[in-house]
Design brief:
The protein is an alpha/beta fold. The chain has a single domain, classed as UDP-N-acetylmuramoyl-L-alanine:D-glutamate ligase. The chain has 12 helices and 14 strands. The strands form 2 sheets. The chain has a 9-stranded mixed sheet with strand order 6-5-1-9-10-11-12-13-14, sandwiched between helices. A 5-stranded mixed sheet has the order 3-8-7-2-4. Strand 10, helix 8 and strand 11 form a beta-alpha-beta unit. Helix 8 crosses helix 9 and helix 9 crosses helix 10.
Length: about 350
């Protein structure tokens, strides 16, 4: 990882440096299919509440047909984050792989419509565009069943080096890490970013994801990552410790900056020298937690690239997360810049 100067110096340089984009995200380009159902639906279809399960085409079709009143919209974790950055008024770009099918065209159109530059596929790859079937239960918990489709085949050749080099900060989505080609692409993108004195960030995405790729994640964090995003469970799983305090000590030893979310307890921003606690914003009713972590990252990244204090970055993340959990869907329904 780049280590020129103190963290404060690097953050000041990050905000001041010229760039075409504030944040460039890389992730699984998926279309979200979101529907409400009760807990019995989870039991009937053998779903683990709160989990993210990778599924094949037949299973995706089965679940889709079983759900009624579903809402379809372009999604994917990092794409949601880039949409949030744009909603704050930031300049965002997204790198992901789609097919030239109808869903692929919809995906690209949706991003461009909200002001996010899309650098992705569009050719006929022979594998359909990915989609995520999300079941939201009455307690607002979301259970995700993901068919990755062509998105998981993203490799080095799909990384737009010019876009990465011209973004203040690179944001990489842990969900994409399931194939070796994607791991190589992450390393390549991080190298391009650092060779241009850019900041590199990673989101752990999901505790199940951490369990699958713990060793690779640990290596990536130690070698390339300047800013790590995760929640309480993910960070403890990454370092295989039981307590939050132990996880804080571990991440502090390996990464210059981390932003760790704790649900209703807000977030903790960790550096080698300090720990900043930021409360969550009040939400009248939690409707759907889909996208909460994605939008928290959007607010934090917007604050960081615009020169805000770390405490303010956490506050912006909490504002964005609070907006998105108050309605169905993983993207803001109002301009986030109006909430600041």
């Amino acid at each position: 990882m780049s280590s020129n100067g103190t963290l404060a110096d690097r953050l000041a340089a990050l905000a001041a440096q010229p760039a075409r984009f504030d944040v460039v995200g890389i992730g699984n380009a998926l279309v979200d299919v979101i529907a409400h159902a009760d807990d019995r639906f989870l039991t009937d279809y053998d779903l683990v509440k709160g989990s993210m399960t990778l599924i094949e085409t037949d299973r995706a079709v089965e679940l889709y047909r079983a759900l009624s009143g579903a809402v379809e919209m372009s999604g994917g974790s990092a794409a949601n984050t880039m949409t949030g950055v744009a909603s704050f008024g930031g300049r965002a770009a997204y790198i992901g792989k789609v097919d030239g099918d109808d869903l692929g065209q919809v995906f690209g159109h949706d991003l461009k419509a909200v002001g996010v530059a899309f650098h992705g596929g569009g050719s006929s790859h022979g594998t359909p565009t990915g989609r995520c079937v999300i079941v939201v239960t009455p307690d607002a918990e979301r259970t995700m069943n993901t068919y990755l489709g062509v998105s998981s085949f993203l490799g080095v050749d799909d990384v737009d080096d010019d876009a990465v080099a011209d973004g203040k900060l690179l944001y990489m989505e842990g969900y994409l890490f399931d194939r070796d080609d994607a791991k190589v692409a992450f390393r390549h993108a991080a190298s391009v970013a650092h060779s241009n004195d850019r900041f590199v960030s990673l989101t752990l995405s999901d505790s199940f994801c951490v369990e699958r790729h713990r060793s690779d994640f640990r290596g990536l964090v130690a070698d390339e990552v300047d800013l790590l995003f995760g929640n309480d469970d993910e960070i403890r799983s990454l370092y295989e410790v039981d307590s939050f305090d132990e996880a804080i000590d571990a991440v502090r030893a390996e990464c210059p900056l981390a932003a760790i979310t704790r649900g209703a307890d807000g977030c903790v921003v960790v550096t080698p020298d300090e720990m900043i606690e930021v409360p969550a914003v009040d939400v009248a009713k939690v409707v759907d937690t889909t996208g909460a972590g994605d939008l928290f990252a959007a607010g934090f990244l917007h604050g960081l690239t615009s020169g805000q204090s770390l405490a303010e970055c956490g506050r912006l993340g909490s504002i964005a997360a609070g907006e998105v959990i108050a309605h169905v869907g993983p993207r803001p329904l109002v301009s986030l810049r109006t909430l600041v």
